[in-house]
Amino acid sequence: MTTNRPVALVTGASSGIGRETALALVAAGFDVVGTSRDTSRVAPLGGVTFLDLDVAGDASVAAAVQQVIKRFGRIDVLVNNAGVGSMGAAEETSVAQAQGVFDTNVFGVMRMVKEVLPHMRTQGRGRIINLSSVVGLIPSPYMAVYAASKHAIEGYTESLDHEVREYGVRALLVEPAYTRTGFEANSARPDTPLQVYAKQRHTFDRMMAEAIKDGDAPALVAKVIVAAATDARPKLRYTAGTVAGRASTLRRFVPARAFDKQIRKLNKLAG
């Protein structure tokens, strides 16, 4: 089976930003394939074909991408949305736990890109859209491992974009801030908690819960992803929501000393 409609592949499409993105791309005229680690537990989504995929597994990634190519004959847009959260002080998080976060958030993206990119180069066109975060732009105390994974995605995507542009392919970043999803509830907590950080960690947890409750709707982020997928002249970075926009401006234009003080104030840190 082949199609004349553009085809989008969205990882982590069973809920939250991924689910809304899949629906928004259907509405924008795409044939959409969504992925989940266990599609037997995913409610049907109008116009979206679901495949099992674990981005942390090489064989799983290869099999899923080959299924899409076999069924549709093309992949025009890859949305790397699948990811995991991690909260807690850096010292409280073991290297093994950090490796687990990177295996999904960073190496999962790399696996998907390496499998999809040859098809896009052969087509002479394609968009790779990687979900970063506002904490890929600014520091986030008590989320050091997660922030590091998103900083890695920033550097990887910007470098990749320069490599593939001459082949008609673009690699782009979408940077949400706090979004009303299950992120906070589903984030891993430190596996080696230390009493010295307990008070500040609890303060951060409360602050994060409030920020997510008052955050942007996933559909707002999905709208930005569709723009990245369809803009005739795409930008490298798309911030999603006013908080992300302000954070990007803060990072670029505020002097380092003032920026540092603002980060400590926002995170209720002493000194």
Looking at the overall shape, the CATH architecture is 3-Layer(aba) Sandwich
CATH superfamily: NAD(P)-binding Rossmann-like Domain
Radius of gyration: 19 Å
Question: What about the largest sheet?
Answer: 7 strands, parallel
Helix content: 40-55%
CATH topology: Rossmann fold
Report the top-level CATH class.
Answer: Alpha Beta
- Give the CA-CA distance, first to last residue: 62 Å
| Number of contiguous helices | 10
Q: Which structural class fits the helix and strand makeup?
A: alpha/beta
Q: Domains counted in the coordinates: how many?
A: 1
Can you list the strand order of the major beta sheet? 3-2-1-4-5-6-7
Unreliable runs, pLDDT <50, ≥5 residues?
none
The number of distinct β-strands equals 7
Shape: globular
